[in-house]
Amino acid sequence: MYVLVIILFLFLFLRSRFWCKQPMRHLWGLPSTGVIRPDPWWNTYCSIHVHPSTLEEVEGYLDRKPLESAYCSVYKNPDIQGCILSRKVKFHYPTILDAYYHEIIKADSETIRQSLFQTHEYFRRRDTKCDISLFSSPTRIAWLVPVTRYPLEWIRSYWFKKYPIPKASFVQGTKENLSVLYDAWKKPFLCQMNPSLITLADMIDSKRISLFYYYQESLAAIFFFQNTMDLDKDDAILDWIGTIRFTKDPIEKAISTLLYSFRKVYPILRIHQVSDTPRYHGYKQSYLNHYIYNYGTKRISPKDCFFL
Asked: What is the rounded CA–CA span in Å between residue 51 and residue 32?
């Protein structure tokens, strides 16, 4: 029996040895806070086929147009076989820090993905002087402890009802009224990641992100949505990625009315059960894990997290 356990342990360790070497929180480590490795790290996983790139070079390889402000690396041998795009964000835990979020990680094989990730981190840290990065994964990575993990509830938008909520109660976020967020983010969640208002304006212009302010007598809530271009069969999916709530008064009917309005364009809503977003139960459930690279953290409840 003990021999089988040891063999299984060695198999999982060797299969995940790449992540076991990374400066991240592992299952066998105690929780800590702060930068783990202060200098850029070139190791055996780094590849001479990876180098910093331009958005013009990778645009044809990607399914969608990348953000102009992203830091980009490409794996090329001799054609493009992978790329990573990272955008600068503010990371709150427990103080405000600069970080980068790996928004796109695409590779033709797992071996290329590992070399791409490791070399990208080396060049990114060297060039940006920023030690911390974040990424998300729909699957759990062996031996790593995510900062949080939460379900995504898949719900059909026609399930929601329309109530007599005044149209003036909802104001769609534009780059002209993003100053409202400046005050909202003065009291961040325990663990929060958000772009600058300038970057967010670009994300709104490119139709990646949409947000809605909901007013009662004053601002009651802000709802954040992301268009990932994903489809479930032929049905478009809209991700409800987060909520900031300022009132304890009931807002469920207002939420239902807003979600009902999406039914013709987005038949499916994927609701991230994180931040102040209410809890739902859909026809299908998936999960999302958030990991922090080169910075120690504790596990944090999804209701105390916000990722944009």
From this structure: 32
CB atoms inside a 10 Å sphere around CB 69? 15
Structure tokens that stand for 216 in this block: 């009662």
- What are the backbone angles phi and psi of residue 103, rounded to the nearest 5°? -75, -35
Contact 204, 67 (CB under 8 A): no
Alpha-carbon distance of 92 to 188, in angstroms, equals 7
CA dist., res. 147 & res. 251, Å (int): 29
Chain centre distance of CA 231: 18
The CATH 3.40.630 portion of the chain extends over 150-291+299-307
* Cβ-based neighbours of 63, under 8 Å, separated by 6 or more: 229
Pick the CATH number of 150-291+299-307 from 3.40.630, 2.40.30, 3.40.50, 3.30.70: 3.40.630
Q: Which tokens hold the place of 8?
A: 């299984």
Radius of gyration of the chain (CA): 21
12-68 pLDDT per residue, tens? 444 467 888 898 888 877 677 789 998 898 888 999 999 999 888 888 888 777 777
Contact at 8 Å (CB) between 81 and 8? no
Taking the C-alpha atoms of residue 26 and residue 142, their distance in angstroms, rounded to an integer, is 9
Candidates 182, 196, 36; CA nearest to 101 is 196
In contact, 257 and 272? CB cutoff 8 Å: no
Q: Which of 117, 101, 131 is nearest to 47 (CA)?
A: 117
What pLDDT shows up at residue 11?
A: 47
User: Distances from the Cα of 187 to the Cαs of 84, 98, 159, 249, in angstroms?
Assistant: 31, 17, 33, 19
